[in-house]
Design brief:
Layout: E1 31-37, E2 41-50, E3 55-65, H1 80-99, E4 104-109, H2 111-115, H3 119-129, E5 135-136, H4 139-151, E6 161-166, E7 171-176, E8 183-187, H5 191-198, H6 206-229, E9 241-245, H7 247-261, E10 272-274, H8 275-286, H9 290-294, H10 300-321, E11 325-328, H11 333-344, H12 351-355, H13 358-369, H14 374-378
Parallel strand pairs: 1-4, 4-5, 6-9, 9-11
Antiparallel strand pairs: 1-2, 2-3, 6-7, 7-8, 10-11
Helix pairs in contact: 4-11, 5-10, 6-10, 7-10, 8-10
Amino acid sequence: MPTFAPPLLPTTGQNWLDGLARPNPVPAKPTIAAIDIGTNSTHMVIVRIDPSLPAFEILNREKATTRLGERDSQTGDLTPAAMARAIAALERCRDLARSLQVDEILAVATSAVREAPNGRDFLKQVAKDVGLQVDLISGQEEARRIYLGVLSGMELDGLAHIVIDIGGGSTELVLGNGQEPRFLSSTKVGAVRLTREFIHSDPISEEDYQALRAYARGMLERTIDDLRASLPDDELLAAMRLVGTSGTIEALTGLHLYGTTGTLPDRLQNSVLPLADLRQIVDRLRGLTLAERSALPGLGDRRGEIVLAGAVILQEAMDLLGSDRLVACDRALREGVVVDWMLTHGLIEDRMRYQESVRERNAIALAKKYQVNLVAAYH
């Protein structure tokens, strides 16, 4: 049973933010919208932050499949159609955020915009047409914020974990135990990217499938070798718990659970996807047409189109890591953007304590919801 301490007790020792300029004071319980402009989708989460915990409550979520990563095959530019889809989605996100009277809208762009020659021009257009300033983040910074998002909703108990996030254009891998990340990486293998480059038949041909597997494995091998090399001699990758986030892993975990229970749960948090079952899912997906994949529970046309490539990336990564199962986490980059904002605005005084106290924050939030006498409860 964890020991609870009042969250407002002053911390001791040197604060990690000492010496940094503090931003302007924020409202007592600020409401923040965080937008992730990804290769496959544009996502937004709206949260209300309670600095006394410190934690946040999710008020609303928004998602649009924009396929920004469908770039011009000759120039690599973001296409006018893809940019128009993304801008329309951002306008809807902005309007929803304003309707809920958020105090600040945060937006980040990832792989598709990073790599496109006209990516910065697109962000200028977003600023002009939508009125949003978007932060173009590096692959390593994306991995860092994904890690913060996971830590906002999952207790790592001081044990080394590997976090994997398979996006549309890249796959992020992080090694950490709830404190500072020990390894951050971003590899250019993603579900949209590999679908475009390797799936040219319906259902996929044996030749295309083997090429897809070989490419995914070859791209991930170097990264995982670097991850393994960062470990002390007494640590083994295969002994570490693997945590998975974002759309591809949510879809595959959902397919697994539907196959075993006949239902799709409302939340996938802490659901387990064994590698043996993932192999069966991959074998099934590769024999289906796009229309048949799209008809599977929880997929639809847009996810059905790219799910096979995403599943192959995950299968090869788990093979190389020696992981026999994955635990799903429903928080990722968007929530990490919120945590990063809380850190930079001084709402989390002791970052290490924040990262080690998920259960404590959840318990206090629940107690406040039901108006428990916190003084008596602490006693």
